[in-house]
Design brief:
3 domains; 319 residues; Nuclear Transport Factor 2, Chain: A; mainly beta; 8-stranded mixed sheet; globular; single chain
Length: 319
């Protein structure tokens, strides 16, 4: 059985597929074995190459794979950069209860926070590039809290890690506004969704659980208006992803629960149009992490009187 592929070609690279030079993204459908290579333009990055087996499906080498229903999407440019020599940016130390905690912010193509105490070490990727970083370690009842703040363009970055004999990430993200109150942290941030959702969260630290708990979540909307019927599934999934269960429930018919749907869908990275489906009417895809790649799960939505009355996942075509 032949397997379908879509290969993404970045403007800063050219590809060689089975000996043929390709300068644009392309589809192919084939059996057997194939060689795909990427050559970055400018020579600043090393070339990469993979061997694709279609029966059974296997890829030897590194390439970013997004599995859609019936199509494998391949991209070299979505792979993370290979790490370079680390460069330390900031470092703070604190000795507490017999442990000397050393926190170091460093960069090796991406920024990371490394924390160690002589016996245990942990590394926390920031996932963004932070400017004007500030690093603090403060003693608390059970050990210490390590706080990293900085700027990401015009927004604010915050990471908090608890330190005992081991390390635990408590909070990490980019926000439009961060306020440190006497007994809580207020986080405010906008989402890039149809409603222009603005989320305000109040977090309080629980000494018993040794973690932050959300005690209040408010939702505001910059684009709260009527949308065409075809967008209802997208509005529902955006509300589910944002944790806005009250708004999500508005899009569901009686008998369906937004809370149950959220639990069923689990965590997902993004909401996408099912670009490779033959019949995309009332079908929406969510992208879910799968090892080092993504899997597109496609769902069919049935609507009645403007509300979603049934949802079911479409089956994958096996390769």
């Amino acid at each position: 059985m032949s397997v379908k592929f879509f290969v993404h070609c970045d403007p800063n690279e050219y590809l060689v597929f089975d000996g043929r030079t390709m300068t644009k993204s392309f589809f192919f459908e084939a059996n057997g074995e194939h060689i795909l290579s990427s050559f970055p333009i400018g020579g600043n990055k090393p070339p990469r190459s993979v061997r694709i087996h279609t029966s059974p499906f296997r890829i030897d080498g590194q390439i970013f794979v997004t599995r859609w229903r019936g199509v494998y999407e391949l991209s070299f440019s979505k792979l993370p950069e290979k790490e370079s020599i680390p460069n330390a940016i900031l470092q703070k130390k604190l000795t507490d209860r017999g442990f000397t905690h050393v926190a170091t912010l460093f960069c090796d193509d991406t920024q990371k926070l490394m924390i160690e105490n002589g016996g245990v070490n942990a590394v926390f990727p920031l996932k963004v590039m932070v400017s004007n970083p500030k690093l603090e370690i403060a003693p608390v009842s059970f050990g210490a809290l390590i706080t990293l703040t900085g700027k990401v363009d015009e927004r604010e970055y915050l990471m908090i890690v608890s330190a005992k004999h081991t390390y635990k990430l408590l909070l990490s993200g980019v926000y439009d506004e961060i306020r440190f109150e006497r007994n809580s942290i207020i986080l405010r941030y906008r989402l890039n969704d149809m409603l222009g959702r603005i989320i305000t969260k109040e977090l309080k630290f629980s000494n018993e659980k040794e973690e932050f708990e959300t005690v209040r979540t408010d939702f505001d909307y910059e684009n709260d208006r009527a949308y065409v019927r075809a967008l209802t599934p997208y509005l529902l999934l955006e509300a589910i992803k944002a944790g806005d269960e009250q708004r999500a429930q508005r899009y569901l018919a009686d008998g369906l629960s937004a809370k149950a749907l959220k639990e069923s869908l689990g965590e997902f990275e993004s909401i996408e149009f099912p670009k490779y489906s033959h019949d995309s009417a009332d079908v929406v895809a969510i992208l879910v992490k799968d090892n080092d790649g993504l899997v597109a799960k496609e769902y069919k939505f049935e609507l009645s009187e403007g509300k979603i009355s049934n949802i079911y996942e479409l089956e994958y075509e096996t390769a």
